[in-house]
Amino acid sequence: MTEKQAHHTAVNSFDQNHSDYHTYRPEFTPVIVNPLLVELNLATKDVDGDHIFDTSKKIVEIAAGTGKFTKNLVANGWADNLTIIEPSTGMLESFKKNFPNIKAVQASSYAIPIEDSSVDAVIIAQGFHWFADADSLKEISRVLKPNGKLGLIWNFDDTSPSQDSQAAESKFYDAGSRYFNTTDFKGNNQDVFKQFFANQKWNQEVTQYIYGFDVNVPQYRHGKWRQIFKNDSYFKNGILDSFAMYDLEIEKQNVWKYWETRSYITDLGDEEKQKIKLHVEKLIEAYQQDNSFSDNNKTRLIKPMGTHTAVLTVNK
């Protein structure tokens, strides 16, 4: 049987745009990353509320890209017990420049070059939607120790089926949003984020316009990654959901550059990308208001953002 391969659109687009991806995509805030590491049994909190990281625990990070998430692990002390798996040649090139001393190999979720039952946690940042299938789960399960954890994390731009869980069963963190304290944390999490993202109309309009181009590729927002766990035998039932809310202050001129790093936009021709760019700029002009900016010169737009973490326990 032929080994399943990483999604060609993801690999090809990230081979092309890895440099811009690293420049224009947001970081992952420790406000939610550190609690995620606690939920993955990789850290604890002391009596003063400080995080203590157990760097003897072995981690595999799959689809690490340029190292946006890895940066947190390295800052918390991981080095020898961290292995990076990345299928894109371009992304791996950028990663090795950013982290020359971290072990990184070109591979995918379908063939992880790690021994059976040898790692404490597998972490996937901004990538699981590309390979959310039974073959990946089987392979991830294989390398995890009994009761090992799978941690997923995404930054996201709008409400979607991926947030189809109950607020009362989730954790929320204020990672620096002027809208956090006015949000009603009740009902379904999709209702919570509808309120949150409605605070900036310009962002909603641009986001929904760009989303119209992603119909043919897997994306976090489609929510299909949640469905794979419903009939799965490799991980125990139940997803622990946590969310952080923050405001990304983005230079007006860089809004297009942010969206151009999306795989389904990178894959388009130059002429079509130019048309999309012009329309994005028109939408910003049409829907921006005085309270859309974080500075008096009106150069930095306020873009509400969310970060979602999901934790699962291996079933072995």
UniProtKB/TrEMBL annotation:
Q: Which CDD domains match?
A: AdoMet_MTases
What does the record list as GO biological process? Answer: methylation
UniProt keyword annotations, A-Z: Methyltransferase, Transferase
Q: Where is the Methyltransferase type domain?
A: 61-150
Domain of life per record:
Eukaryota
Q: Which InterPro entries match?
A: Diverse_substrate_MTase, Methyltransf_11, SAM-dependent_MTases_sf
Cite the Gene3D superfamilies for this sequence.
Answer: Vaccinia Virus protein VP39 (3.40.50.150)
Q: Does the keyword Cell membrane apply?
A: no
Q: Which GO terms describe its molecular function?
A: S-adenosylmethionine-dependent methyltransferase activity
PANTHER family given in the database record: METHYLTRANSF_11 DOMAIN-CONTAINING PROTEIN (PTHR44942), METHYLTRANSFERASE TYPE 11 DOMAIN-CONTAINING PROTEIN (PTHR44942:SF4)
Q: Which family would the database say this protein is a member of?
A: Belongs to the methyltransferase superfamily.
UniProt protein name: Methyltransferase type 11 domain-containing protein
Q: Which organism is it from?
A: Lodderomyces elongisporus (strain ATCC 11503 / CBS 2605 / JCM 1781 / NBRC 1676 / NRRL YB-4239) (Yeast)
